[in-house]
């Protein structure tokens, strides 16, 4: 597979994202008169340009992914014209190369201090993940939260691969499965904006697309999301229904590497997490990918 220059890739992704969001709006959504003669859905480019007070030709070039400069003020005006939410506007700025004076480096280092925190979180699940959803370290409650990570590390060691390729995930989340997947894909796309054209990221998208029609559909929807504050409810095969709150803490100012702390949403869930920890008390308190550890 050939890989584009990351800047060219980002420009094309930005253009595609803007076209997608433009196609979702109708004239009356933005206070413009409608027409039944439109051959394609959504606003016209000249309408977006008018709303954002930019030239039509310039905006056309922006959607085409051409090498043009766009200021923060202009992109903010375009974001407003397209009625983007804060996550979507941040995505536009990232793809345009703004607010990135220091490019985040994907941290692969899990220190002994990190492992100590993960261990002390028990009986609450805790793990360290990177932007691609690789699980770099975990405690034993997290290990058995849905299906044993260490039994199939090549699949279950990445939450996206597990979500779309592991039947236990669909069973665990039941009716909320697609909602959970939608949020994961939206956050993954937001993370990937800083890594366009990088082989490891592109290859993961290709693998997931080939693996799952649902992933392919969600990926094409181009939704972006930075955080998720929802209480997640799922059925653990060992202790039953759990209501859980997932909290993300970024490590060492590296926004691509995060500690995921899972806390119970009620007393029953807390008791069941304690029971899950007791069931597997003979297993190591925490584990990690050996290649990622640095003392």
TrEMBL record:
Q: SMART domains this protein is in?
A: HTH_XRE
Which InterPro entries does the record associate with it? Answer: Cro/C1-type_HTH (IPR001387), Lambda_DNA-bd_dom_sf (IPR010982), MLTR_LBD (IPR041413)
Question: Where is the HTH cro/C1-type domain positioned along the sequence?
Answer: 17-89
Q: What is this protein called?
A: Transcriptional regulator with XRE-family HTH domain
